[in-house]
Input
Amino acid sequence: MTGMRLVVALRHHRNAAGLTQAELADAIGTSRKTINTIENGVFVPSTVLALRLARYLGVSVHDLFALPD
Output
């Protein structure tokens, strides 16, 4: 399982909500760079951060992040 990357749909849901990276970051109390690195699969968010993102965007964590098939 090493080296497996998450499938990240955060950008899709953020864009659907009409938010910039900076707006989303401000709303959940993180930095724009953190949002950017999550969207690009460079950084895997903590459980707390993933839950905050999902709650703010009105979706489930699974809608934002999944393991590849």
Remarks:
- The mean pLDDT is 93.
